Structure formats: C-alpha cells, structure tokens
Amino acid sequence: MGTGTSCEQVPPSAQSGRDAVAAALTDDNYSVEDGVHSTSNAVLYAHKFTQRHPLLQWNDTENVVHGMGTRSSKLLVLVDICDMSGEVSGRVVLSVMSSSSSLLLSTAHPSGYKLKALLVSVRHPCLLPVLDVDKQHGIFIMAQPFVPTGSIKDLIYCNPVPAKGYASKYSRVGRGLPRTLISRPLV
After folding, report:
1. So what's the pLDDT on residue 24?
2. Could you report the per-residue pLDDT of 166-178, keeping only the tens digit for each?
3. What is the DSSP letter of 5?
4. Can you state the angle between helices 39-52 and 12-25, rounded to 10 degrees?
5. In the predicted model, what is the mean pLDDT of residues 84-110?
C-alpha cells in the first residue's frame, strides 16, 4: 500500500497543471554546463516554486519559453500572478538555472536569506525588480515581472512579440549598398 495519491483524488484544476508539466517535460532543449540538471528537473522545481507561493499559479497553456534569452543554461518559465481575490493580474517570469552557472552563487555561496535580501533590494529604472528568489539542490530560481511590451532592447528593435526567439528577434536582415554610393573615381 503506497502513500501516494491517485489521479482520481486530485482536483481537476491541479490535474490539468500536472498535464501541462508532463507536456513541458517532453522537450529537452535545456542544457546546463555541468550536465546534471535537465529540463524535467528545472520545470519540476519551477512548478514546486509556484505551489509554495500562494499568489503564483501554474498556467495550463504555455509555460516554458524557449529562445527568449541568450543563455543556454537558463530556462525561462511564464506563470500567472494573482491578486488577493484569486484573479489573474499579470505574468511572472521564473528564471531557472544551475547555481554553478551564476557567478554570484558560485563564488560567494551566500545563504538564502542574504541572497534574497541582496537581489530584492536592487532598485534601478532600467532593471526589473526581483520578486523572489530560491536556491535548493543546486538550482537557482528567480521571479521577476513579465513585461508584455518587451524589454528596452525590444523597444529599440521594434519587436512586437517579446517571447519570440532571441536569434530571430534581434537579427536584422541587411543588404549591400548600391554601387553608386560606394564607387568613387580613381584619380
């Protein structure tokens, strides 16, 4: 006799969240330098992070955002943030990475409280605030608000879809100059 719960005992809303986690686990594009962690571990830690926070809810449709950032060692997960009444009021980006890939974590080894106090206290007009951080089992999770209009770089490059792949967002299709502009008479 096991102590686990069956699918029939789980509420339908939680079951659909499990289905979304299972669907996200099938994609293995997440790589970490030391090779210990996989996409499935990163998604499960992000899901557990949302379960511990009452204002964060796991979204059933799209969660893992591939190609939004440039670091291959970081997995970005979009979750919903709710107000006190339980209605969805926005989105939050969870950045999941190996603690060995972060310079701050690999050199200093700060405690969870000091790390959270340090990152939450950073204020700058060009930086998004850090809502919460968590570090356990060699995985570092940082929660920041998701801006649907995109970052400053998205505004400069006039990108309407900030969740689009990095390589396709910031590459400009160029063409050569006409010969009349570059040719000059030789004297």
Report:
1. 43
2. 677 766 666 666 7
3. P
4. 150
5. 74
4-8, 15-19, 160-164: which has the minimum mean pLDDT? 4-8
- The model's pTM is 0.60
The contacts of residue 98 (CB under 8 Å, 6+ apart) are: 32, 33, 34, 36, 37, 73, 138, 139, 140
Ordered by where they begin, the domains of the chain are: 11-162 (3.30.200.20)
Q: Using CA atoms, how far apart are residues 162 and 145, in angstroms rounded to an integer?
A: 13
| Rounded Cα gap, residues 65 and 158, in angstroms | 20
DSSP SS3 for 151: coil
- Burial pattern 158-172, b for ≥16 Cβ within 10 A else e, equals ebeebbbeeeebeee
Cα–Cα dist 132/144, whole Å: 7
The CB density around residue 99, as the number of other CB atoms within 10 Å, is 17
Lowest mean pLDDT among 9-23, 53-67, 164-178: 9-23
Q: Which helix (H) or strand (E) holds 107?
A: helix 103-108
For residues 47 and 64, the answer to whether their CB atoms sit within 8 Å is no
pLDDT-based confidence at residue 69 (cuts at 50, 70, 90): low
CB 43 within 8 A of CB 24: yes
Collapsing DSSP to helix, strand or coil, 124 comes out as coil
